[in-house]
Write a structure and sequence with these properties.
Layout lengths: L1 H13 L2 H10 L2 H10 L2 H8 L4 H10 L2 H10 L2 H10 L2 H10 L2 H9 L3 H11 L6 H4 L6 E3 L4 H11 L8 E5 L5 E6 H6 L6 H4 L7 E2 L4 H11 L3 E5 L5 E6 H19 L14 H28 L1 H6 L7 H24 L8 H30 L4 H31 L10 H22 L1
Parallel strand pairs: 1-2, 4-5
Antiparallel strand pairs: 2-3, 5-6
Length: about 450
């Protein structure tokens, strides 16, 4: 794409605007949006105005929020009206939900009353709910309509819909009755009633359902679109797979940030200020720093033992590191399993039993290898060597058990399981590892 973008720059610099306009309007909308990000701000508006009305709206829907804001600030009210008229409702809402108040006002001012009312309704849905990501541009037929009438309606209105591959059948009260694939509609006889063709085994979600739950349903049932209904089962919108791809990316990013002890952020790294990055990191760093003092307090309780056998202190980092890694491995797998819907609260005993056995096997292998290594290096410290090796076995088993249970309990208590990973689980396991090590040392040394 870089070569193509360079060609656009050359056409612009040479003043060959007729050829540039033709090339731009033949380009893929997503690629053009990427091109806009590379342009200086003073050139973006000029290029945008070379696009046809339809293409301008398509490209606008793919732009990042900063470019969208710059375009809307710079164009006339009539151009804003054209963009909003061509944009799908979900794309309009996505932009407005992140835009500053003055831009929201400008857009709403240039929107007709009916669409403005719909936009305000969408903006009032809770963030990350089905209502906030659905679109109202879908194909619906009355259940008593014939195939011929349905096809006629589809030809007239289908061009403005988000998708036509899945159609929806409703009754006179707009209550959802079934789903009708386009293939079945096209292949049916003209006088067949739509109700006879539809599939009434429907997967639906409510307007307030969480987007992460909805993404699980898309994966489970291999859907390309899903109807959204209200409390009376009236069809109010649909969610398409392209929106769910964005949701999955957003949820995965959020989990990664939480697992790394960061406050989640929707902004791109290079576009986020240094102070904002620091603000997102400091809270968890403070929590981990304060909780880390527990390890120091535990070591303080065993000053006499450490003074008696100084060699024990040299193995503290080894045991704490091994325990933290073992706990993080378990918690990461459990968090991922919960995110995919493979593990639930009812499975906790199965999970603990499995991780206990994994801990026994892993810990035993690590202990044996460690004992052999220490015996070769320090044959005169037999009791210290055996203490460290036994402690390692116990630490790994306990760390695996803690790592697999804390995420499940976190979800049960209403927290995101992702917070029980990485630095936090390591800090907890460190304290437990010290208690195990010093208590075993008190017995064997």
């Amino acid at each position: 794409m870089e070569v193509v973008f360079d060609e656009y720059i050359k056409l612009m610099e040479s003043g060959n605007y007729i050829e540039l306009k033709r090339e731009l309007n033949d380009e893929n909308a997503a690629n053009l949006a990427e091109f806009f990000e590379e342009l200086p701000a003073d050139k973006q508006l000029f290029i945008f105005r070379l696009l046809t009305k339809d293409n301008a709206a398509d490209v606008f829907s793919y732009m990042d929020s900063d470019t969208q804001e710059h375009i809307v600030k710079s164009i006339t009210d009539n151009e804003v009206r054209n963009i909003v008229d061509e944009l799908c409702m979900d794309d309009t809402v996505d932009f407005l939900s992140e835009a500053p108040a003055n831009l929201v006002t400008k857009v709403l001012r240039n929107t007709d009353e009916n669409k403005r009312e719909l936009i305000n309704k969408f903006l009032n849905y809770p963030e990350n709910s089905a209502g906030s990501i659905m679109t109202i541009e879908f194909v619906q037929f009355h259940e008593l309509m014939t195939v011929a009438r349905a096809m006629e309606q589809l030809r007239k209105t289908g061009v403005d819909k988000e998708t036509i591959y899945t159609c929806y059948v409703v009754d006179s009260s707009r209550k959802l009755q079934g789903v009708l694939p386009l293939r079945r509609l096209i292949l049916a006889d003209d006088d067949t009633i739509v109700k006879e063709l539809m599939n009434d085994d429907i997967i639906t979600v409510g307007t307030l359902d969480d987007q992460e739950y909805i993404s699980h349903l898309f994966k489970k049932y291999n859907l390309i679109a899903m109807p959204v209904v209200d409390k009376e089962n009236r069809l109010v919108g649909i969610i398409t797979v392209d929106d769910i791809v964005d949701v999955i990316e957003q949820e995965n990013t959020e989990d990664i940030e939480k697992m790394s002890a960061l406050l989640p952020s929707d902004d791109e790294y290079l576009k986020t200020s240094v102070f904002e990055l620091a603000k997102n990191r400091i809270p968890w760093l403070l929590v981990l720093m304060i909780s880390g003092t527990i390890s120091g307090a535990i070591m303080g309780l065993y000053d006499d033992l450490l003074a008696k056998v100084i060699a024990l202190s040299t193995f503290v980092p080894l045991l704490m590191g091994t325990g933290g890694n073992a706990g993080s491995q378990a918690s990461t797998l459990i968090i991922r399993g919960m995110a995919l819907g493979e593990i639930e609260m009812k499975d906790i005993l199965k999970v603990i039993w499995k991780e206990f056995r994994v801990g026994i096997i892993s810990g035993a292998i690590l202990s044996i290898v460690n004992f052999i290594r220490l015996t070769v290096m320090h044959p005169e410290q037999f009791f210290v060597n055996i203490t460290v090796s036994v402690s390692m076995l116990c630490v790994v088993v306990v760390a695996k058990s803690i790592g697999c249970t804390l995420p499940i309990f976190a979800k049960k208590c209403g927290f995101d399981p992702a917070i029980m990973a990485g630095p936090l689980i390591t800090t907890i396991v460190d304290s437990v590892a010290l208690l195990i090590f010093f208590n075993i040392a008190g017995i064997l040394v």
